[in-house]
Amino acid sequence: MTERAANTLMRAARLPVVLGTLGRLLIVLAALSAPPALAAWSQASNALGLRLAVTAVALLLVGWPVSRLRPLRADEHDIQWNEALAVTGLAFLLAALVMVWPLTAAGLGGVDALFEATSGITTTGLTMLRGLDKADPAVLFLRAWMQWYGGLGIAVLTVALIMRHHASARRLLETTGEQLTDAGARGHARRVSMVYLALTVIAIGAVWMTGLAPMDALLYALPAVATGGFAPSDQSLAGLPGATIATLSLLCIAAAVSLPLYARLPHRGLRALTHEPELIALLGAILITMLLLSAIAALASGLPWPQALAQGFTLGVSAQTDTGFSTVAVADLPATSQVVLMGSMSIGGCTGSTAGGIKLIRLLIIIRLVQLALRRTAIAERAVLQAQVGGARIEPSMVTATLQLLALWAMVLLTSWLAFLALGQPPLASLFEVVSATANAGLSAGLTSPELHPALKLVLCADMLFGRVEVLALLVVLYPPTWFARKRNP
Question: Is the pTM of this model over 0.85?
Fold first, then answer.
């Protein structure tokens, strides 16, 4: 198809559809503002509680009338692909923006508050706050709460709670990476939400049983389930009991597994786990990362092997699941360890989980394609080979999507890294920070701080958003034909 022909087939996003869906998202965000507001008032943090309450009311006043917007024709209520992507990209941006004013109650400036909100909503875990051990518990809960609902995904919550149109709900979920097969969109979203809630309750109870106070258990468990990494301490996990660290690491692994997979356990049993290639790849990637980090710590840094293995396990889990917890300062690690961590963070966890990165399924697709290319060199030219992952055929559309994401990721990483270098930041630490932000991992090489140049803070904010929506959704928002192409024929 020629470019001219393609242009004639393009359809602009319809503002009533986009705004109507965003209006529903704003209603959900208003409801999500209630728990931290109540927590703030219970902790006598009246300024924070008031700001959250005003924000919730404002979201309702705007969201309710906007949610009533509809196309004029009844047969046009379904959502186009560019509209669904635009809604997803704008949803995370709006979710971060509406929390900027409340977070300024913690003493943050405007840019720092935006950074903190973006890091929370995207479950990244990079932070501008210091002195967390003495911080207001209400602020700490707000941070953990943002990561918790950001981990499940605002789109999933909206579909589960209030969206009724099946085709639109299905398309909105598909933009977040959800794989819908025989289930309706709303039923799928509700099952995933129930799994997430069950995992959260188990996490809070498990961390509490390791000896932490109830509030501390909550503040560590919520980010662990969201693979977010916000900790109520400047030292992250350092100083916690070994049982607590091990429990949190196991919870991060559980959260990096596809949530729909848990929903299938009652029907398929443990076979649903043992026959899942992404889960096997996740465990293998964690093991490889752990062994590499442990060997570097023991051989290059002279750390005793038991201590090196413990450190390697915690860091390996944190990087592979893109959680961001740590027991040591990443800036103090050898350059080799930092490179290993960057590779692990970039790959990430399973599709449909709360983990970030490019996702393991895409790595498996690339590996299978390479294997297929090698096999073709040793068989007859006319032989037909099919690339498969876990018994499922790799469709051409999957290959295209994988290569597209890898190219977009490379573009974002390179552009952001150049911005850091242009402002005189050290090369390796700059690359580490950019990779961590784009992978929504949250481990820091020491550059993320209130002293960082405001422009670079905004670069990292953009990276976190690009990583959370897998780049394309935000590019659709910025793409002029999304809004100015031809409209549907009436």
Answer: yes
